[in-house]
Design brief:
Number of helices: 0
Order of helices and strands: EEEEEEEEEEE
Radius of gyration: 14 Å
Number of strands: 11
Distance between the termini: 40 Å
Strand content: over 45%
Length: 120
């Protein structure tokens, strides 16, 4: 069925950059909102960035100006360019695909997660 596979995580120093990629396969809806979420130790999973099928982008305040999300609808991929990384960005990052807000039936799929560790 639907699968989301993340890649690009790793260990970087503060101030460095990483680019995460997510490839979706299976019967993904063309109207899906896709994005990135993260979960740090002891914290709830939080939204990092999302992009709708129409191109509307939302960022968490904590990453605004540092992260850039992009989507290639043709390839069913979504990427997250992370610049000026901070130790507090350390988390497992998850790719997500979900139903748009206007949909009558909601769905949501998650990738397995990729670890991002930012050293001081």
């Amino acid at each position: 069925q639907v699968q989301l596979v993340e890649s690009g995580g790793g260990l970087v120093q503060a101030g460095g950059s990483l680019r995460l990629s997510c490839v979706a396969s299976g019967p993904i809806s063309s109207s899906a909102t896709m994005g990135w979420y993260r979960q740090a130790p002891g914290k709830q999973r939080e939204m990092v960035a999302t992009v709708t099928s129409g191109g509307t982008i939302d960022y968490a305040d904590s990453v605004q100006g540092r992260f850039t999300v992009s989507r290639d609808a043709t390839k069913n991929t979504v990427s997250l360019q992370m610049d000026s990384l901070k130790p507090e960005d350390t988390a497992v990052y998850y790719c997500n695909s979900r139903a748009p807000r206007w949909a009558s039936t909601r769905w949501s799929y998650w990738g397995q997660g990729t670890q991002v560790t930012v050293s001081s």
